[in-house]
Every structure is written in structure tokens, then in C-alpha cells.
Amino acid sequence: MSVTMIIFVVIAIILVLMYNSLVSKKNQVENIFAGVDAVLKKRYDLIPNLVASVSKYMEHEKGILEEVTKLRADANKPNISDAQKIALDAKVSSALGSIMIAVENYPELKANENVMHLQHSLNEVEEQISAARRSYNQAVTDYNNAIEMIPTNFMAQAMNYQRKAVFEIDELQRQNVNVKELFN
Amino acid sequence: MKSVSELTDFYYKVLYPTLNKLEKDRKHLRYRIILVGFALTFVFFLGSLALQNAFFLGLDFFAFVLFAYAGIGAFVYKILIKGYTDDFKSVIIHPLIKELDNRLSYTHLFHVAQHLFERSQLFQGRIDRISGNDFVNGEIDGVKIEFSDLHVERRHKDSRGRESWTTLFRGLFIVADFNKTFHGKTVVLPDSAQKTFGDLIGGWLQSKNLGRDELIKLDDVEFENKFVVYGTDQIEARYILSHSLMKRILAFKKKTKHPLYISFVGHAIHIAIEYNKDLFEPTVFSSLLDYKTAMEYVQTLHLAIGIIEELKLNQKLWSKR
Questions:
Q1: B104-107 and B135-140 strand pairing
Q2: With a CB-CB cutoff of 8 Å, which residues 43-72 of chain A face chain B?
Q3: Is CATH 3.30.420.40 what the domain over A3-183 is classified as, yes or no?
Q4: Could you tell me which chain A residue has the CA closest to the CA of B234?
Q5: Angle of helix B16-55 versus helix B59-88 axis, rounded to 10
Q6: Which of A94, A156, B142, B274 qualifies as a cystine partner to A161, CB 3.0-4.6 A?
Q7: CB contact, 8 Å: A178 with chain B?
Q8: Distance (Å, rounded) from C-alpha A58 to C-alpha A102?
Q9: Among B241, B282, B278, B244, which Cα is nearest to B262's?
Q10: What is the interface pTM, i.e. ipTM, of the complex?
């Protein structure tokens, strides 16, 4: 076999490997986003029950309850993009956080068994969401690194792969959402 | 739970009369061991010389004699110290454990079951011999815990049919209920590849570990440097290894000062601490009243029983309550 032939084969192998690694990184992101979606949905499912149980008492917080309900309706619309889902998640997290803080002002609510159960379920779902977000961010970081680093960036350009956004959780929000610390 | 210093006080104050008596036994025993040792050596020396003179045997014969000498010596030593060891366990180790937490029970000759060790998947490969002692189990704040000394070995045979044993694990093995529900498995191992080969090549090697599940990269830099994590589910592994648990595991590792292996399988957390020696055994050639010796017993027990508080295994989430 001639030298050119060998060089050609080696280059072909490298290209295939690069292509496959990019595809597997993209699929990993999608795969994990499905997991994120599942736990987000679990939280959305808790919202109607939560709103129904607290709305009788919470006269002053009607606005935020309506907002949460609306956000839930938005999230349940078909064909929304991943980026939109990420944005909605941030809003829902902060709205739920505010509701949970508001609950503190209503002793009857704090003592209500249904509300207590919801708080604990929410707390558990929040932990799962946090884990899912972290997994997603890691997968996206691997993916983004691959499409920006040499040599895979050339391949990614040819394949028209774009950077993906990660979940951003600012400190304040993280504290708001940390229901467990508030109620234990 | 009692603190280490309270426990040390207990060791020196309450157990002092017993320790003193045991210390006397130890001195007698040491004297006896030295005597028997000399006698045994003498007999072997004379015996082999006599046989050599009679039959002109070669090097192989001496190798055999040495082997037999070591074997019989170890056997005799074990028999000699047995009574002393038993006494030590029942009058020192047992009360120490009861003092730490009286909800725990202690069985001197038991060890953690082999199926639990296998379930943990911390150490891969065939197990041919498993031994151990000092089994402690019980329930603290609704968390079931059990631990013991464990020595797990594998047998090898070379081309000439000679047998040898290698150690898979030797140290303290702890199994406890975990406070979150999960379905897959997550294994946390000491990070040797990244330490030896650096981030780039080490990280690549880790991801190519065929015997393990998917590599899980975590978002705590210090944790990532000290450990490598494999698991069946990326999200679940992070659900288990929350930021706070990673911090607690790091703190626990600093305290143990020995290689730490942790896995989450079934409903339980499995922790293996590699000491590479038999723990909770009485000293024969140094004093039982020695501070260092005492601290070793006290600290190891405190460490094992302390994991429930240390890792906050008693703070259960709603679905586990």
C-alpha cells in the first residue's frame, strides 16, 4: 500500500471518530434533556394542587398564583423549544419560591397537612430537578467544548452544530427554591 | 453520639481496672510467646541440621523447612493469643461500642455478608476467600447500619500449580440505609488515573474504563480531583451526590486518612475504608495503655458509627419517611 493511501485511511478514520464523538455528545445532551423534561413535568403536575390548596388563604398573593398557573399552561403547550423550556423553568422556580416564602405568613397553611405534603413533594422534586439541571449542564459543557475546540470545531462547523445554552441558576433563586431549609 | 474525647475518657477511666488486668495478661503472654518462639526455632534448627547431616538434602529442603517454620509459627501464635484476644474483645471493644451507642449490638466472630460486599460492586473480580470479624449492627435514628472488619482475597495458581493469594480488599466495610430513593447504581472510587496522568489523559482513561458504567463528571472541583464516579444514570448519580453530600464525603475522607470507596446500590450506601490491616485487635508487643493504641480503637469506632450523622443519613426525604 502506498504512503498516500495510508495517510488517506488514517485521515478518514480520524474524521469518522470526530464525527461520531460529536454526534454522541449531541445525543447525550438530548437524552439528558428528556430526563430534565420528565422531572420538570413532575413539578408542573404539582402546581394545580398547590394553587388550589393555598389560594383560599392567600388573598394578597393572587397575582403570583395566577402567574404560576399561566407559566404551567405555557410549559404544557406543544412544540416549545428546549431554550424556552429552560427559560420557563427559571421563572417557575422563582415564582414557586415566592409562594413558599409567602406560606410562612399563614399559620393555618403551615399546619395544613395537604400543604405540608405538597411542600415535601416539591422539595423532593426540586432536588431531582437540581440533579437533572446539573447533568444537563455537564452534557452541554462537553458538547460546547467539542464544537469550539480544535480539531472538532471544524467538523462541527461543517455539520452546522450550534452552541447550546445551560441552565443558569443565580444564587438568590437557589436560596428561594431551597424549600427544605425553610421548613425543616 | 459521644465525642472522641468523651470516649477516650471512658477508655481510661471506666475501663482502666479491666485494662490493667489485661495489660498484666499481655505481659505474661508476651513472655510466653518469646519463650515458645525460641523453643520452636531451636527445634527446627536442630531438626533440619540433623536431617541435612543424615540425608544431604539440597536448597529445596531448606525452603520447605522455612515454609513449615513460618506456617507452624503463625499457627502457634494464633493459638497462644486466642484467649487474650477474646478477653480483649469482650471487655474492651464491646463496652466501647455500647458506650458509643447502646442501640448497637456486637458479635466478635461475624462479618458483613459476602453478598453485601458483592452487591457494592466496589471491588471487581472473583472472590475466593472472605474473612473478617468484629461485626456491629443496629438501627440508629431509623437508619440500619452494619459494619465489620473484612478481608477479601482471590486465589492464583501459577504454571507449576503453586497457590498464592492476593488481597482484593482489607479494612472496614460499612453498609447503611441511604436517605434517598434511587434505582440504578453509582460507584465512587479514589481517583488514581487523574492523579497520575493529569486531567487530560487521566480523564480520557477514566472514560474508557470498560469494567465500569458511564463516567460521571461532577461539578465540584475538589471532589472531582479526589474521586472518580461511575454510574448507570447521569441524573440519578447527581441526585444522590448533591453538593452538600459531596462536601460531607470530602470532609469524611479527610478524617479517615485512608483510601475511601463508596457505592450506592439497592437502597443502601456501602463504604469501604482500606486500612490494609485487621482492626480492633489487641496489641501484644506494645502497651494497651498507650495513648496511640487507645486512640486508634476509639477513632475507628467513632468514624464508623459517626457516618450516620456525618453524612446526614438520618435526614430522610419525604418518600423515605
A1: antiparallel
A2: none
A3: no
A4: A135
A5: 160
A6: A156
A7: no
A8: 8
A9: B241
A10: 0.77
